[in-house]
Amino acid sequence: MSNRPKLVVANRKMHGNLPDNQQFMQSLLQQTRHHRARYAVCPPHPYLYQAQQLLQNSHIAWGGQNMSQHERGAFTGSVSPLMLKEFGCSYVIIGHSERRQRGFDSDETCGIRFEAALQAGLTPILCIGETLEEYEQGETDLVVVRQLNPVIAHIGTQALSKGVVAYEPVWAIGSGKAATPQHAQAILSFIRGHIELLDAEAAKAITLLYGGSMNPSNASQLLSMPDVDGGLIGGASLIADDFIRICHIANELSSLKTAA
């Protein structure tokens, strides 16, 4: 049994306001103390200062939802890795399908951004996953390898293992239709196995998340799978009680692994 502690990340997308954020983060602080699992919150960029003020010196990390590959320059509307670091971020989401679909990220640029995040001292969370059409055509394995290989080619397996890979089937994101635990395990096992062919040490070390309609009702089954090291939570991160319940489940399973 793996000793990797569970990681639960709230991707709050383009939601929230100052009072709602404060209630969410204060509830998380108060109700997840003394946990073995790891937790992080990724709010919209304008609220990173608020996250820093509320969460600094606590057991809750925070991060950005995206970043430029550039440290500075004439890139209106972009946010650099150094800016995220200055606001105390530990994590940054790279290549989320909602950005890939709008043409902002590609398989190749994700590798460049992944490297830039590591160089800035951030932990990148690389999102990969197939569309409904690709899923129905049985192309999931091909898609995740196509998305992962350019990153590995750019940075290597040892650098990859310092980050996080989140498998997020596009057809499950925001749909309320999560992948079955068996499907999530099969794909994450395949991803780990693909990395293991290149570097067994990196495959053992890397944290793999499942994302796509994980909620309090299915979190226990999903997080119990041996290769599911945590969750990237979208919709269920908008309601503090739901997200906290997932955190509690992750903590219980992390404690069981540690005891084992």
Describe the structure.
With 260 residues, this protein is α/β, with parallel strands linked by helices. It has one domain (7-259): Alpha-Beta Barrel (TIM Barrel), CATH 3.20.20.70. It contains 12 helices and 8 strands. An 8-stranded parallel β-barrel has the order 1-2-3-4-5-6-7-8, surrounded by 6 helices. Helix 1 (18-31) links the parallel strand 1 (7-11) and strand 2 (38-42). Helix 1 packs parallel to helix 2 (48-55) and helix 5 (107-119) crosses helix 7. The N and C termini lie close together (7 Å). 44% of the residues are buried. The model has no long low-confidence stretch (mean pLDDT 95). This is Triosephosphate isomerase. InterPro entries: Aldolase_TIM, TIM_sf, TrioseP_Isoase_bac/euk, Triosephosphate_isomerase, Triosephosphate_isomerase_AS. Homodimer. Involved in the gluconeogenesis. Catalyzes stereospecifically the conversion of dihydroxyacetone phosphate (DHAP) to D-glyceraldehyde-3-phosphate (G3P).
